[in-house]
Protein 1
Amino acid sequence: MTHLPLDIAHLLAGGLVLVSFLMIYQNRLSALLDVFAFHAVVLSASVAWQAQLQQAPDLYITAAIALIFKAGVIPSALGRIVRNLGIHREVETVVGTGQTMLAGMGLVALSILLMMRITAGADPLAREDLAFALAVVLLGLLMMVTRRNAVSQVVGFMSLENGLILAAAGAKGMPLVVEISVAFSILIAFIVIGVFLFRIRERFDTVDIAAMDDFRGDQK
Amino acid sequence: MGLILALLVQGLQMALVIALAPLLTGLVRKVKARLTRRRGASILQPWRDILRLLRKEAVLAQNASWLFRAAPYLIFAATWVAAALVPTFATGLQFSWTADLIAIVALLGSARFYLALAGMDVGTAFGGLGASREMMIATIAEPAMLLITFSLALVAGSTQLSTIAAVMASPAVGLRVSLGMGLVALVIVALAENARIPVDNPSTHLELTMVHEAMVLEYSGRHLAMIELAAALKLLLYVSLIACVFFPWGIAGPGTGLFAHLAAVAIYLGKLALGGTALAMFETSVAKMRVFRVPDFLGIALMLGLLGTLLLFVSRGL
Amino acid sequence: MAPVDAAALLAGALLLLGPAALVLGPRRAAAIYAAAALLCALVAGLGLTALLTGATSTTVLPIGLPWLGAHLRLDPLAAVFTLLLGLGGAAASLSAIGYFRHEPAPMRVLPFFPAFLGAMLAVLIADDAFSFLMSWEVMSLLSWALVMVHHREAETRTAGFVYLMMAAFGTMALLLAFGLMAGPAGGYGFDAIRAVPRSPLVTAVILGLMLLGAGSKAGLAPLHVWLPLAHPAAPSPVSALMSAVMTKVALYAFLRVVFDLMGPAAWWASPVVILLGAATAVLGILLAMIETDIKRVLACSTIENIGVIFAAVGLAMAFRADGMPAAAALALTAALFHAFNHMAMKSLLFLGAGAVLGATGTRMLDRMGGLIHRMPVTAALMLLGVTAIAALPPLNGFASEWLVFQAVLLSPGLPQPVLQMLVPAAGGLLALAAALAAAAFVRLYGVAFLGRPRSDAAATAPEADRPTLIAMGALGALCVFAGLLPGIVLDALAPVSAQLTGANLPQQAGQPWLTLVPIAATRSTYNGLLVAIFIAISGGLVAVAVHRFASRALRRAPAWDCGFPLNDPTTQYGAGSFAQPLRRVLGAPLLGARETVLMPPPGDLSPARLTVSVGDPVWQALYAPLAQGVTRLSIWANRFQFLTIRRYLSLVFASLVLLLLGLTLWA
């Protein structure tokens, strides 16, 4: 069973892509946050497995960060915000689940094709990881584009960051600096956006960003 | 000797699926009842119902045509033949090469085609409603099924179920995220095809939500018995299919002896019981969807099938 | 006499039957159609023998261009389509004997009908560009004349206009393609064309032109818009010929050029064809799901089947370009088999639709219903047809679709990642099309033949005439035969795949139990015969056992319908309501289907209204602007009609000077 380690890495990275799709499918905020937490759990498992494979103990720290912050603290905090705002039951009108998923499928195919072309000859594990990571990043972007609610855009942004971490973990010998900076940027983004949410809510009584268009003045 | 055993196995399989199918339905109902703290009827109850229906007089609508009377037997026969070709406890079925996975799915498609036609025969609003919705569900479930078949064929290099089962049981397959996706997709397709919650509710007569029941509304007596039996067979077929493809352990190979076959039957019964219980638990824990949510739900299966295929190319491309 | 001479003779006889009909007049119509049917049967026999012997014969007739003559050739590829033409033509001619008895203007059909058949045969046996294009144009014009039979209906005139435009456009594309192939040397014989080497770019351009020229005649998206207009407008036997046979002649032209004449295409040309085919299939069948005119439904389903065939042809191109001849042979055989099956099924269905139209006087599904009681034989044969075309085992539609899927499943062997990923997606689209076809034909059959009659005409419809029933029965038998014994058909197609791809499927006749084994027994097998026997035995045994041992009592009573009394037949599901779920799920995103409900205010007793608007997106995006442009151009050009003599003369003078100037500068 020599290919079992590789298989598990494949399973975890592929699972991350799958959970990204689940996030696209979810149009209820509270369920979306749950799925996001699960996303982070899969990410941390994947990174931990990479740490074990590559004999790189520092990656365990990354895994722990992912597990504690992204699977624990941030979703619960966001969950509280959502409950405070009273929008946890809100059903978002997404741009048609079917179309979004089809677009996502195209993005996955694109990232696989791209990575298979430009990383020919690289370590198979890293290749696969990079392909999946690019897919996760693109899916995160897709989610930010297709959602109207600010909270789900935040979630999309963070799942995008998860993809970056997956890529970083897949590349051998990546120093810890990057992970910390990535984690930091997420934290900052989270805080900033969290504050923003309250601001928006106070002023316009909604977090639907379509409502902000009315105040731009250059339209209409 | 080998041929006799193979014929015996095939015959046993045909008898077994028909004997077990209503029992599986009964088991699902029983577990569901227990989970909602009711006692529930005996798991023999579906069999009793079918026998009772068989003895009753059939009441036919005045303008029902010959198609309406012939359809139940046709539907039952197509489903039975399909169920007899799925390896349940042994892969060495004498006639398993008659149809591969695609053809088995298409046979079920034939059964559904005639059921939908029969639903429209009397000219009632409900029959048309059921037929129209059933065809919509099938329209999305079938491509999903083909994509699942595609990823299985990529792994096993075959669409023959016995070959797929043999390959999946071998250690060469390993862990594949695509197979996991295939499993989830197949479960979704199975739920939709068998009119289970959350797609359809098999025990409802709430008019606006029913699909399968609306089509068979005008049937009674022996005709209804045939259709009920076919529905039970279809459920058994899908559980067996999932067991055979994704949990192929304990299936007797073509060359093994009598004892191995007996053991395989026992294991198969265990798999059925597990599958039925899992279905009952799932059905108890979710709510039925609006009809126009169903395409989204089936879209997941479609997406998983395609994604599984795409991901398989990654691991193959290495 | 060599087969090709016989074919030329038959084509000539059919072509001459047209003028002969003019002389003999409408009173001999039955004899003329019978003669056409007989000649077509001979054509079919000729095609079959030429196919089975696998021989190629050529001849040169001293007509056409004086320095070239008319080169004719009957090779396996031409033979298989000759067989198709013969079978479809014979059935349509037979049905025409009965159908045109009630035709108010018989002389608008009679001369054109046999000549149309002859022109199609001439296309198939032509072996030089001139006679090919000539026959092609004659075929187009004759079919146009047949579309215009009921020219007093505005709908028909629109259809005829659009068809004429598309036919002219298609011929122009073909003309350019052959011009490119002939090259600067100008060798118009197919032998000369084969011998010329071409750069990949030229090949790609030729392929593109063939997609336009042959694709427009076959109904490939986005050039399909004329087909749902023109095919239904023609009388039903002609619709059957156009849908079942003429689209195949277009397929023949495509195969002839792409696989035989133009030389190997690069692999990147194939995904275009595969995607076009798969998209055509889905678009066509989705339109069929929504149309409410029975003949339009059938015409749209033709678009779907053409899409399936072209997707398989594209696969064959991909496999051939990548040096996988066995896989290419499988895909190509699947395409040809499906073409054969579609000929049989679609002829059957169009003849049945003609019978229904003759009996009820309407093509609208929503005015039919319950015809299974009034037209039992037609209904039984149509049931066979819809089961076959919905790709359900054990009939022939499934056998060929199954082969197409087997070819799709071979795509992982292709070296290009793009194709590897695209082909499964296309396979998913084809599966979607197959599932939609089942839904569309449940709707067609359920609304037209089952349920209760929705109009007086439907309630009193008479059974179809005997020739039509015989033709339908023969076609139905063909469907059953090809479904239960597909191996025999595949073996007969072997010379064609050998000619075009250089490889063959495994010999099917030697397989145990006549099982279909496209690649290897461990990989995939299907046995339609055994499936049919098993279903018949188990269904029959159970029926007998139930009647013998359980209960055979039967009582007729009013329908239950959850206690709702059956009175008004309009409470049944009609064509529009049956399509509603799929229209909402797939029609809204793909066709821009919209539903608007007009609800009167409370207290107002006027009825609520549901309006459904569906359009072909291709029409709005591509054709509407084009048509506007053409109209504007013609208005502008119209001014030249009202000039003075002096101006006309100055125009002539100016062009003369320009031409002379050009001649001077050229040298």
Protein 2
Amino acid sequence: MRKVAVIAVGYTKVSEHWNLSIRELFTEAALMALNEANIDQIDALYIGNMFSGYCQHQEHLGVLMADYIGLKSPPAVKIEAAGASGGMALREGVQAVASGLHDLVVVGGVEKMTDVLSPDITSALAMATDQEYEAFIGATFVALNAMVKRAYQHKYGVSDELIATLPVHCHEMASKNPYAQHPFKITVEQVLSSPFIAEPLRLLECSPVGDGAAVLMLCPLEKAKNFTDAPIEIAGMGAATDTIALYQRDDLTTFKATIEAAEIAYKMAHIKPDDVDVAEIHDAFSITGIISLEDLGFFEKGKAAEAVSEGQIAPGGKVAVNTFGGLKARGHPVGATGVYQAVEVVKQLRGDAGKNQVDGAEIGLTQNVGGVGGTVTVHIFRRLG
Amino acid sequence: MSVPRHWREIPKRYRLIGSKCSNCGRTYFPPRNVCRECGTTKLEEVKLSETGRIITWSVVHEPPRGFERYVPYVIAIVELDDGTRLMSQITDCEPEELQIGTRVHAVFRKIREEGESGIIYYGYKFKPIK
């Protein structure tokens, strides 16, 4: 296998982009990356997206986007794995370059959520669950994660106050990120007084609905210097799946797919969790982030929320997490999220993270979750010495 | 959801039909052709228990399409007395009454309807045993 590098990134602000269509969103992010690498032709395009079919009645996204960013007939395809669509698209792109099949690959993610009303987004998100046996009876995606929170609190006795420190941390980070959807600070008191979406999860524990697109350009590491002075190596990757239905899991307080995907990725990159300087984790809900911090090996089971409250995931702490605001505050345009995470880690490792920069960051990690832990991808990135 | 799609689910939704592995004995809802536990394809249909206990639950305040008029409602993971787990609405109760471990039994109820002249979906819900 060839080594693979990221040579350019592109992204839009995450927002309610009432004036932009899904193709315009993607085009903006893609042109930013193509311009940075000074490239106008590529070998293949992989686009992470979860529900353009539901929200825009548009499938066949690959050709639509290739057409509108002016590419001449490359193979182009949409990759769908619910919230992990972006991470899975990245995996496809890396595989294509590593195998020697393609040299220049664009990996993108896009989601346009504000074309439909709130109950429709709730229904669209519930497509990540077991439709016939969870969504059918009225289970929402938030409700499933809420059930995980209740089970977790029952098992470990962790308080709402401690769990709320994760969204507070993410908003603190986003307040310095110009492309974040919610760039403002919040307090634990605000989290705990916000209304329930699905008990015991409150509004300010849930990532917002927004539109966005993010793009990475990949090429073989040996050719990366032709395009950039600061290539970032993709040093490891892992992906795993679990049961799609939450109720069929023996343990509701851990995502087995995260543990398995991370193990594979750490092994491939020859690192341990302690070696990670910056991480973008999938905090679609407060509890999802807390569990992920534990399953990735950063903290013991039942201890992550306390660690967050002690500042251990702030820049300068044990591991700097979600330094651009995470899903909670940067925003969570579902199929684009895994690519945003990769863009952010690349920016950190390049020393290009602005006010959020973590000094001397060398190794970064992204963890992208589809459904309630049904699919998980983990990627590890390394700055070259 | 189309009529045939609902129709073919009727045995499971009306009668709690699952499957049991004839090798390791694990039961599943809905039925499967392959046992997740031991990998065998020797599974047979079984009628599942109609009583069980709540493993975890949530109260839905933001509904999906079709459930707007029912909020707030309770969704739970239930472990049946034969060990099978499923997800169900919990009905005929106040959310404050519920605890992890609350005993429940199956009832036959309307799940929702599709518009004023569309199909009405029926199926199982569970209610606390008092």
